Amino acid sequence: MVSKMKDVSPIQSSWFCTPDAEKLKYNWFIFEFACDLYFQFKQSKIEALCMWRSRRNNKQLAEFCAYFAKRIRRSTLEVFVEIIDEIDIKDEFVYDYCHNNTASETAAIVSVAMETWKELYEICSVCPGDCTKRYYDECIFFDRE
After folding, report:
1. Lowest pLDDT segment from 9-13, 23-27, 127-131
2. For residue 51, which of 101, 9, 97, 93 has the smallest C-alpha distance?
3. 51 neighbors 109 (Cβ within 8 angstroms)
4. Residue 145: pLDDT band by 50, 70, 90 thresholds?
5. pTM of the entire structure?
6. How far is CA 15 from CA 28, 82, 98, 133, in A?
7. Distances (CA, A) of 42 to 23, 38, 65, 82
8. Buried b (16+ CB within 10 A) or exposed e, 100-136
9. pLDDT digits (tens, 9 = 90+) for 94-115
10. What does the domain layout of the chain look like in residue ranges?
């Protein structure tokens, strides 16, 4: 799922790190997740998600994806260090940002986010970059942007 489409994503890697100390593989994974989530939302045919998306422009959608990716940082790290077996994505993460969502919209967002995260994790788990195991190593990809 890690896609070349992120090259046209309005999401910027600088949203996920500012000082050099934060240019970590862990933050790159979170950035990749935000980009993938953005494109999954854009392409989704799920009716509730289409309704939710129709009330947002591309910038608002990108900002939500960046926010959401940052909200699951802790849970992502807990998966990386094997404290938990599966990512924990909560409805409250959506409701904290989108107060007027319907239950079906929130359920669709959480479902797509969960599937997107799992697919990205599966890819990154076998990648030579080893972001899921060497998550605190410096990531050169931030300097390529």
Report:
1. 127-131
2. 101
3. no
4. low
5. 0.89
6. 11, 26, 20, 23
7. 27, 6, 11, 32
8. ebeeebbbbbbebbeebbeebbeebeeeeeebbeebe
9. 999 998 999 999 999 999 999 9
10. 21-144
